[in-house]
Design a protein that fits this description.
Oligomer: heterodimer
Radius of gyration of chain A: 22 Å
Shape of chain A: globular
Number of strands of chain A: 18
Number of strands of chain B: 18
Helix content of chain B: 25-40%
Mean pLDDT of chain A: 94
Strand content of chain A: 15-25%
Shape of chain B: globular
Number of helices of chain B: 13
Strand content of chain B: 25-35%
Low-confidence stretches of chain A: 477-483
Low-confidence stretches of chain B: none
Helix content of chain A: 25-40%
Largest sheet of chain A: 7 strands, antiparallel
Amino acid sequence: MTAAPAIVRAGLRGAELAGALRDLLGADKVLWAREDLLLYEYDGAIDIATPDAVVLPNETADVAKLARFCAEHAVPLVPRGAGTGLSGGAIPVEGGVVISFARMSRILEIDVPNLRAVVQPGLVNLHLSTATAPSGLYFVPDPSSQKACTLGGNVAENSGGPHTLAYGVTTNHVTGLELVLSDGTIVRVGGKALEYDGYDLVGTFVGSEGTLGIVTEITVKLTPLPEDKRTLMAAFPTMDDASNTVSAIIGAGIVPSAIEMMDQLSTQAVEASVGAGYPLDAGGILLVEVDGVRDGLDDLLERIEAICRTSHATQLRVATTALERDKLWAGRKGAFAAMGRLASDYYVQDGVIPRTKLPQVLRHVIEVGERYDLRIANVFHAGDGNLHPLIMFDGSKGPAEVERVKEAGREILEMCIEVGGSITGEHGVGMEKNCYMPLQYSPVDMAVMRRVKDAFDPLGLANPGKVFPTPGKCKEFSLNAAR
Amino acid sequence: MPRAERPGTPEACAELLRACADAGRTVRVRGGGTKSDQGARPETDVVLETGGLDGIVDHVPEDLTVTVRAGTSVAGLRDALASHGQFLPLDPPHVARGATVGGVVAANSNGFGRYRYGSVRDLLLGIRAALPDGTIARAGGRVVKNVAGYDLNKLFVGSFGTLGVVVEATFKILPLPPVSRAASATFGSAAGAFGAADALVRTSLRPTAVVVERSGPGRWRLVVAAAGESAPVERAMTELGRVAASHAGTVEAIADPETALGPLRELLDRSAGGAVLRASLPLATQIAFADAAVAADPGARLVADAASGIVQVHLPDESAARRAADALLASARVLGGSARMERTVNGELDARSVPEPGGAFLMRRLKDAFDPRGILEPARTVAG
């Protein structure tokens, strides 16, 4: 079964479009056969739609040429990295062209003296840090999908990862971009320095989910690798205990490089799949990492251990070798994949809350799960207050079951907003949460965002149907919770 | 004479902007009035003072966030947070002269701590801004991660009031570090001082200040500060001694970090006459830029946040200031960075020396979208 675009607007489409693109760019850069397009109709989320064609550019000039053509013929442009996104950002909901950056995946420059790298958008996140490690440098944002996800996707979504607590998310590590706007204009903004004249267009673009244009080159900061690190796994009888520990650590003035939390359902799934060595009987576990110069790290670790004990920790284990540390992290980073053992499908939420609200909101998540009779696992960036409830379900039960799951997800997000949080911390809005934007923002707030959209993309062809609520699809949600 | 207006609420501020837009009256936004040297400032019909928008709206110490009205002085906010053992990790200039939170956001005003703690754009979680159409828009939020919708915080940081008036801002804050220390080392060349600075930046020491100063002919001083737990702070001081020695520098202890850093931060206020220029550069090009500054004016005084590539230059020779400034503006550009004047000798600079940044046409479109009548801070930035 092929998923047709959910929204169809006037413009060149189908075989005629594919033929024109082959003439424009050469047949080697265009996919149009149905079996080829199937690969591009889904990403890491749960929505699907089939593109009319897929273009694989070799260079920026190809992208610009494509965009000019699409502008003339009213064809939507949907950029795609590795397709690991968790909000439907790469789904061509209005049809048109998906631009795959698989062939623009090179590191253009590792500039060690200036602590910068210049890369193409299709570069895999982890490959950058691997390439810079011999120079003692790394790229900080480390999404759990970093073995597959691309820098272009990271820029689009403003991705985070476990180690962004102390060092920031993607936007804090990008200093320059080359963009192709939806009319084919090539623009370079920012560069290797920290500031340039005028508005911060780099910061405005990062996290815009492909709706302002297409990024074709990225200049990022490289950071000296920490001299040393300490990684602690702490097990607690309850999630409340684990949550309170997070607040206590931060409250003591300690900002670890990562504080990750997993509930019992998650640790059990992970143990069955990865064997990270997590205790199976704990209500919740924390992974805490501190890094920096060697001096004082052990003292810091001891202070954290003492806080954990005060909060009723039943087990504390410090990784003593790099191998042990990698094993502890492999469990965390493999957690989403491990959920496959518990259910055929899962729907992951990404709400953010003030850290102090963790116990309250986690209890609400459990309550929602019970009420909907859905199993929900929690594995998330506790230090940032960034929740990832994974709602498990069986997709073969049909669309009604998916709708029920989305309803449960919405209840969780409403609670996040009620306590002063956000509907998404790092996965993006995409087409998965665009109907929920009114929970967090007033019509005025969104009208202002729309002005930015129109300034960059007056034609409305840059990843349409994302971020902003679409009238055809979104029911009105109450703003009571938000305001 | 422009009329001074002092709205007491965000709503009154928005209403005032709407009235000005309707009447076509131009508006300058004034917090503490400490950024008056920056950007073109033709006289406007109205000066909107943010002093009436004052005070902390929300501070949850356990969440390490604070929300303040834009007219709040940075000094006042510091005192309020210090009573909870916390601080806003920004150390901008002009605090003693009354710099406000809104001004710091609008001017993207940072200090030496940006390498360690991040700059305004990194620490700002959310804003509310009054717009010329009379609405108040909110961007971001009060949590430390948020990718819902566009990051309009970034657009407003450094926009100098040209898009709207920031009326409220939420920041990440931190607990005050238990230990704070500083030391300096003196070198005979820019290469020595910047070389030693670079060696420290290439470690995981994360100092809170790495500042190079040209204090006189052939005299380059490196000031390094560190804050946090005592062991890593001690280590930073030890490493300074080590790298200074390997770059032929002599180290001197500093009793109070602020006595050394304060005057460096206030180069603009403490330098009389001449021109002052501020450059943002790729890190490794700072030596070449420093040499160019000395070549352009042998009396040049220079203060560089060497960990971030931000270099401020005072050109005291007024007769040569125009030529020297032009040379340095061009030099910054050639080196891959940018520069702007913070003080000029005789008004405007030669337009040739300040080419437009990448995406200037997008900036103008944004300006038009937010302020179609062009009432806010006319001519203050490249966006017009």
